[in-house]
Each structure stands twice: as C-alpha cells, then as structure tokens.
Write a structure and sequence with these properties.
The chain is an alpha/beta fold. The protein has a single domain, classed as Rossmann fold. It is 48% helix and 15% strand. Strand 5, helix 5 and strand 6 form a beta-alpha-beta unit. Helix 4 runs parallel beside helix 5 and helix 7 crosses helix 8. The longest helix is centred in the middle third of the chain and has 29 residues. The radius of gyration is 18 Å and the shape is globular. It starts with 6 loop residues before the first strand and ends in a 7-residue tail after the last strand. Bound molecules: nicotinamide-adenine-dinucleotide (NAD). The site of nicotinamide-adenine-dinucleotide has 27 residues, from helix 1 and helix 6.
Length: 260
C-alpha cells in the first residue's frame, strides 16, 4: 500500500500498538503525528521514528477526551503539514471489574477515552478530509468489538460502540471519499495486557498461567499472541487502500480467536 507523504495522526502513539503503527507508516514514507497524553513520551517516540525515516514524525500533546486539546492538536498538524489523510483513533485503556463492583467513575473514564476520543478526533479531522475529497479513518477496536468476556463490561461496550461509529462515518463520508474501518486485534502483549494478567488472576481466583493460556489464548488456533507488527500491517492496508470498496469493515487479527 502506498502511503508515501500521507499525513497521518495516530492517537495513543507514544507506545504499544499506536507506536508500532507509527513505525510502519514512517517506514513507508508517511508523515506521522504521534499524539499522546504526555509531550515528552510522544517526542521520544517521534524523534526515534524521524531518525529512522524515510518518513518523519512530530509529537502532539493530546488528551483525546479534551475537545480543545484535540482541536489544537489537529490545527498544529495542519499548520505543519497542510493536510490530513489518515486518522488512527487508537488511544485506549483497560479497566476490569465484575459489573456489580465496577465504579461508575471508571466506567465513564473508559468510555470517554475510547468513544469520546474517537468522536472528537473524527469530528476534528473530517472537514479537512472532505475539503480534499479523500481520507481514511481507522478505529482501534478489538475482538471485544465482536465477543464478550467477563469483567470487561465497559471495554466491550466501548469496543462494540466503535463499530457503530465506523459504519455511520463510512456512510456519511462516502460521497467525500472518506473511508472508515475498524481493526479488531486479539491479545497483543503491550503494557495494557501485561497489567491485566495479575488483575484477572486475582479477580477470577486462578493462576496467571491459566489467564494467559486459557482466558487470553484459549480460543486461538495456535495459542499465540497477535503482535504489534500484525496489527500495523492491517493499519497500513486500511490507510493506503484507494477506494470506497473497503469501508465500513471490521477486520479481525487474532490468530483465529474470533472467526466471522
Ligand atoms: N493490547 C491488546 O491486546 C489490544 C487488543 C485489542 C485492542 N487493543 C486496543 O489497542 C489500543 C492501544 O492499546 P495498547 O495495547 O497499545 O495500549 P498501551 O497501554 O500500550 O498504549 C496506549 C496509549 O494510549 C495513550 N492514552 C491513554 N489515554 C489517552 C488519552 N486520554 N489521550 C491520548 N492518549 C491516551 C497512553 O498514554 C498510551 O501511550 C487500545 O485502544 C486498545 O483497546 C489492544
């Protein structure tokens, strides 16, 4: 897929899956805004990517739940590079509790990052995509956009919600050449997942080994974690695909955990 010189904003890109997508985009010659909560960590990632080339990266401090910060971040990218071709709405967190013990504040915090963040970033970039008559918006869903697991009421609700948003954006954006798709990864070993292993072991009263082998990888075809590179390759496909033939889709990358 050709994304050379395309201007891409990736949220939550200082580390984990977002940083992996940023790396593959820069390797393919794109200009990437690494948007994350903390400017210093975003800058460290962006500097590393620019040094690697052939594309380049710039850091943006952005809390995706804050409308002013989202709009300011998008303005900064437009000022630097004059256009926006690709948005990867990737920032996310995980909080697990049985529903009867789920603090309402945690529920609201998780939904805000996943759903308000996807909405606000989409709303901020889409007029600029419409102006140019093209764009690709990619939401980071999960197998939990299509399946449910115990303890994850907020996360599963949020990830299912992103499918709805992507479908609406794909219908509204079609006549403007703007596509919207969802990537649905299985478990990828990032800090978000590392943190859950002891938490799930405690909540489910089982050993950590069983959390990994049964809960996380039990339904895969080969008992393997999905990798950041696997997800980044799909993000490259969605970013570079040239027509509305590929829009409104959810692509599952999960070693067969979920099969459509
Ligand atoms: N790791 C997995 O197994 C997995 C599987 C499926 C989907 N996902 C999704 O992939 C995305 C990235 O997850 P990850 O595993 O790389 O997590 P991670 O914790 O490694 O990275 C998440 C990044 O998002 C940033 N972030 C958090 N809140 C933010 C906010 N309000 N504004 C801006 N940035 C914010 C963090 O600072 C961090 O850099 C998430 O949406 C997650 O739900 C992850």
């Amino acid at each position: 897929m050709n994304i050379e010189n395309k201007v891409c904003i990736i949220t939550g890109a200082a580390r984990g899956i977002g940083a992996g997508i940023a790396k593959v985009y820069v390797q393919n010659g794109a200009k990437v805004a690494v948007a994350d909560l903390n400017l210093d960590t975003a800058k460290a990632t962006a500097d590393e990517l620019t040094a690697m080339g052939p594309g380049e990266a710039m850091p943006i401090a952005m809390d995706v739940t804050n409308e002013a910060q989202v709009n300011d971040g998008v303005d900064a990218v437009l000022k630097a590079w004059g256009r926006i071709d690709v948005l990867v709405s990737n920032a996310g967190i995980q909080i697990i509790h049985p529903i009867e013990k789920f603090p309402f504040s945690d529920w609201k915090k998780l939904l805000a990052i996943h759903l308000d963040g996807a909405f606000l970033t989409t709303k901020a970039v889409i007029p600029h995509m419409y102006e140019r008559g093209s764009g690709s918006i990619i939401y980071m869903g999960s197998v939990h956009s299509l399946e449910a697991s115990p303890l994850k009421s907020a996360y599963v609700t949020a990830k299912h919600g992103l499918l709805g948003l992507a479908r609406v954006v794909s219908k509204e954006g079609a006549s403007h050449g703007v596509r919207a798709n969802v990537i649905c990864p299985g478990f990828v070993k990032t800090p978000l997942v590392e943190k859950q292993i002891p938490e799930q072991a405690a909540d489910l009263h089982i050993p950590e080994k069983e959390v990994v082998e049964r809960i996380m990888l039990g339904e895969t075809v080969d008992k393997k974690f999905t990798t950041i590179d696997d997800v980044a390759e799909v993000a490259l496909l969605f970013a570079g695909f040239p027509t509305n033939a590929l829009t409104g889709q959810a692509l599952v990358v999960s070693h067969g955990w979920h099969m459509d």
